[in-house]
Amino acid sequence: MKTTPGTRRRCAPALLILFLAACGPSGERPLQGYIEGEYMRVGAPFAGTLQQLSVQRGDPVASNAPLFTLERENELAARKQAEGQLQSALARLENLKTGKRAPEVQSVEEQLRQAMVARELSAANFKRQESLFKSGFISSAALDDVRTRMKSDDALVEQLKAAVATAKLPGGRPDEIRAAQADADAARQALAQADWRLGQRAIVAPLAGRVNDTYFVVGDFVPAGSPVVSLLPAANVKVRFYVPEPMLGRLRPGQTVSFTCDSCGAPMSATVSFIADRAEFTPPVLYSKENRAKLVFLVEARPAAEVAAKLNPGQPVDVTMPPAQK
């Protein structure tokens, strides 16, 4: 279609309105920037064969959601052993605190009664043998054997009397109880350590986010400390842009800026979290006739979690500065 001077005059106001709308309320052009992500690489402190991989690239994960599991048969066996040692130590401690049960006390008392009867028999037998020795019917060696038996029965009676007295006490001796308590505490710590080592074989997501990449497949041997899954939490997504030196005074940490991106819909906001303390020349990726050879300052701003979930690292954005205060 042929354009006449009148047509050009009618189109000029419309073009001017579009240009001003693109420049924002203050008439400034938006600043160029991009989205950057700080990735969290999750690994295990111990080596092992990858037994299960619970996520794939691009999956959203919640906090404490399972990520991967390494072989852990040895750790399971160690935990069972530690649990058994703890139960044994606690049972011994409880037994020392409560003392002997009634049937156990009765059993010791019955042993004492039998020992006293045996001692009476030994004493009577010694008297008979002593009379025979005086009459010359037995040797001194035979009399010594009977005397030794009687002394042995006396010692057994005294031993069982002490055992009955100990069994009737309300609990064990204080030093025995303290030793048993220390054994139980040590067993409890050993179980906690076994639980920790077992937990380090089944890794969960430390934060909610999106799986960026996985570096091993099931069956691979994973060296200790090697990352298996790369996560991008929403809190680690930020907007990076460069502010010309004349406009730097309009920004401060905690201030809000708005930004837009292609096909993102309505403008979004982010909170300024970092302002570089050193100037630099305009990065080559932002070279243009308008800002070439000008000094700029790097600024980082973090969007809200629900906004960050919609953004991708490397995505270009246009940042609108807050208006200058008069």
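the 2nd protein, sequnce then structure:
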Amino acid sequence: MKDEFAKRRKQLMRQIGSSGILIVSAAPISHRNSDCEHAYRQQSDFYYLTGFDEPEAVAVFLPKRKAGEFVLFNRPKNRAEEIWTGLRAGQDKACSFYGADQSFPIKELKAKLPELLDNRQEIYYSLGINKRFDNLLLNTVNSVRRKRQSYPAFIDIAPILHDMRLIKTPAEITLMRKAADITANAHIRAMQFCKPGINEYQLEAEFVYECQRNGGRFQAYTPIVGSGENTCILHYTQNDQVINNGELVLIDAGCEYQNYASDVTRTFPANGKFSPEQSAVYDIVLEAQMAAIKAVKPGASSATYHEIALKILVQGLKDLKILKGDISSLIETRAYAPFYMHKAGHWLGLDVHDVGRYKVNGKWRVLEPGMTLTVEPGLYLSADIKGLAKRWHNIGVRIEDDILVTKNGPEVLTHKAPKKMAEIESLMGKK
């Protein structure tokens, strides 16, 4: 991967040009409570360019600089600290392993930053990620302005860098396939373990265990494990209710593998057998998802698969006599909104809701090979919806897969997780 990160840096520096400087800071440590910290997760842009996974670091990129284009400020080796919190790369490994041309202790950043900014006309930087470093940089820039009486322009690097991140390289796709496989197997394990009378958190534990034992140590987001009425709460994470006979269970969860996310949702009956009403709703959502996936191909608008899914969902609600009226009017007036209140998918990558513009110059982006996204239509028939017949109460269904756009069309990375009703019932019946 060392060459992979170097290629990314070269590609980005070509776009910046010799008059620019790019500065990216690592994610700060986040405290959970008292002196206990959350597990450290590197800021995605920083990781994308460096592969460096330690806090208290700043990467500076200076195109055409003779002394070196990639300068990394990071923590020095310190045996006393390493005994408590683990080994550090230090300055030598920052160069030999991570490919920095120069590395300095992070404490030297304030003193060396003015020199690095000298004669650079554009500063590419994203404010707001690390407020502590924001202040240091702004104060340094102000002092440089006073000395040379010129005003370098601040430019947000996000549009350039995030468009790069949108197209995945073969190395990235390999990692995402691995994340997808781990997650698919975890969903299978959860289906096989499920039975009425267990708690939602027990299913969550089985899912996370399967991920961790296969190398997906961290979850890409907090797992959603909802049963019954909780299937109708989009981002339900309480996960502490007893799963009752006759209810549906919705699990929206995915592991992170080497910082790359997966994001999969499966809905299945707690007792292993869909009821007629559950089957009717599930059929609609699955049809919408399958049709939307077919539309994920090079040259298609990134809006198309959303529109296809929506039309099928609305037609399905009309067929069930839950909605009445002309399909076009129902869509235009958003009559479907109480039952379906989100889009049919999002970009996927280092972040579960990954970066990249959906529209460019006011037009929906066209899909290209190497893009990765989710397709996740759903229907949520909450008992709270006024006028909804009781037979439909608390049937929440979402089906989500991770999709790679290839020159030949969509590749479903998470295809191993069963989603046809017969497959789910067969799997759950083999306990």
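The two ends are 41 Å apart (CA to CA). The CA atoms of residues 342 and 377 lie 8 Å apart.
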